[in-house]
Amino acid sequence: MDASTRSLLLLTILFNIHFSLAQDENQFIYNGFHGANLHLDGIAKIHPNGLLQLTNISKQQIGHAFYKIPISFNKSSSSSIPFPSFSTNFVFAMVPELPDISGHGIAFTISPSMSFEHAVATQYLGLFNITNNGRPTNHMLAIELDTVVNPEFEDIDDNHVGMDVNSLQSVQSASATYFSAEEGKNISLKLISGDPMQLWIDYDAAQKILNVTIAPVRRTKPNRPLLSTPIDLSQILLENMYIGFSASTGAIASEHYVLGWSFNKTGPAQSLEISKLPRLPPHKKSRQKPSNIIIISPIAATVVLVMVIGAVYTIRRKKYEELREDWETEYGPQRFSYKNLYIATKGFKETELLGAGGFGKVYRGTLPTSDVQVAVKRVSHDSKQGMKEFVAEIASMRRLRHRNLVQLLGYCRRKGELLLVYDYMPSGSLDKFLFSNEKPALSWFHRFQVLKGVASALLYLHEEWEQVVLHRDVKASNVLLDADFNGRLGDFGLARLYDHGTHLQTTHVVGTVGYLAPELTKTGKASTRTDVFAFGALMLEVACGKRPIVLQGLLEEVILVDLVMDCWKRGAILDASDPKLDGNYSAEEMELVLKLGLFCSQSMPAMRPSMRQVMQYLDGSASLPEIQTDKIVCTSTFTASNEASDLVIPFSSSSGKCSAHSFSSNESILHKGR
Ligand SMILES: *[C@@H]1O[C@H](CO)[C@@H](O)[C@H](O)[C@H]1NC(C)=O
Ligand SMILES: *[C@@H]1O[C@H](CO)[C@@H](O)[C@H](O)[C@H]1NC(C)=O
Ligand SMILES: *[C@@H]1O[C@H](CO)[C@@H](O)[C@H](O)[C@H]1NC(C)=O
Ligand SMILES: *[C@@H]1O[C@H](CO)[C@@H](O)[C@H](O)[C@H]1NC(C)=O
Ligand SMILES: *[C@@H]1O[C@H](CO)[C@@H](O)[C@H](O)[C@H]1NC(C)=O
Ligand SMILES: *[C@@H]1O[C@H](CO)[C@@H](O)[C@H](O)[C@H]1NC(C)=O
Question: What keywords tag this UniProt record (predicted)?
Fold first, then answer.
């Protein structure tokens, strides 16, 4: 044996002792990722015990972990070596921040590159962004474990496995289930149960079939795959490809873990050794039952104690009493216990009060079981009528996910009271930044960002979700700012409560004076165009730093729309800008926002742009049409009337089509009082 052979042998032995990793780049097995040949980025990390954590519960984050050596998929047709089959399996676990509500998922990925510089978190899973999603030039295959429904990608549910080719719109997907041969049926799995599960991906290059199979970690591989799709990967992948994992979080987050991974290009991937896999960190269980105290002591003392405990328990029971009905069982996981909300908000203490709005008071809180910060809104509501529908709506609103919406987490119900639990927004509401001196004035950069964010949230509600959702109360105090000063729209759909509730008979106009479109005060019917109207008022507020109706002196009111219109007519629209900005803004953007604000404030609904158009104007992908000021009819004098019916809006019915000219200039869109 010569020296070089000996050192090679030694090296091999050392390798085999230290790493359970085969040196052939086309195959490896990692029972835990100690010393694994992985490239990590984003918030991914490897724990000391070898556990790979792709994401923690930080919001809007990405984690990637890729095998550093590219795998060669020789696709040269002249090649004697055919396009290879491959086989891989891994064990993963998803631990949501709160029970039953998660974000967003893990994707096993075969990609031409390990760098995902422009990729976005949330529904893009850290793989794509809005522009490159769906492009054939991506050359990417991903098997997604997706825990959020994204209608724009036609997701089937919030618990599915999908096969993605260059796009997050899966070529095939199925709810997470596995076939149990013993029982002869499919058994459902809950991806976000926190329990480890195993996924197998097998590609047969001769048959051009890709199979995906899932099962709980301790089961052997089911003999029927969950997904089995004919697909020619040689047409999709490139010569040298990187394999690995991508995971992302959104407004709500889950911890995403991979415990072990095996890959093979020359045969079936070896099974992982389950007993050798690293353990998951212990998790606080969120659904704790009240503990039953058992005290062993002399009989007499016991009797006394039992009585005392009984009494205390009764008092506590009363204190934390909730209203619960049979129909609510299906919403179980979305229900928070009153006790936890009580503890979270320190008993709804005044010091925890964040604000009080039209619908009730809002408190800050920290959930005792998970340390998650939340905002709890207490809405007094006596009506039993319509509660069922409303709770059903809460359940569906909870599925809304957008980075510019304040996430609704769940609810609780007591006698005469409804509690809604939201994601906590540390920076507070936009009106505080615009109108009060308690917060620093917001820079134009942030203001413009906030408007774009709110516009994209409204567009999502109006056009991008599975059904049209009207906000019905867009205003500065309903726009909250997160830690990075992104605008997030809150309180959506709450107005519906009053539709279902006691105000059923009377057409009760919900909304806020100054943001109410004229047709809304007249007919009480909200539409996407009434939301656009309110967004117009918001844009003007943000640009001018003034409320829609500015009180001057005791009785005189200045209507913001008029003020901006006057400036425009004088050819000096920028004069309307917020003096607090001190001229520090982009004149182009300011002009855009002011004019667009007026366009949205037009009296005639049909003249207002849609949210999609508003978004296009704001992000510069379309430019505002040149319109003369006399063609725009917004509003003018303020009618101090309390009666919505007083506001008669003349329609030029002769043409059948609405035209801006058909308005006299003194109709009012404003409606004082409720
Ligand atoms: C998540 O991980 C990142 C990077 O390691 C860290 O900065 C952040 O604080 C973590 N977040 C939480 C909630 O632990
Ligand atoms: C791919 O096949 C071609 C033609 O047989 C060969 O020249 C080339 O070396 C192969 N590439 C790899 C990475 O195996
Ligand atoms: C999307 O990613 C591509 C790179 O893949 C980048 O060129 C593009 O600018 C990104 N688009 C957005 C909107 O971030
Ligand atoms: C894929 O699944 C089908 C259907 O069960 C099976 O016939 C085939 O052998 C599987 N192929 C691979 C590569 O696992
Ligand atoms: C089980 O699930 C597979 C894959 O989704 C489906 O094709 C099959 O019909 C299901 N079988 C039963 C017995 O439900
Ligand atoms: C890859 O497949 C070959 C052939 O079946 C087998 O000998 C080898 O152990 C496998 N390696 C891994 C890491 O799965």
Answer: ATP-binding, Kinase, Lectin, Membrane, Nucleotide-binding, Receptor, Serine/threonine-protein kinase, Signal, Transferase, Transmembrane, Transmembrane helix
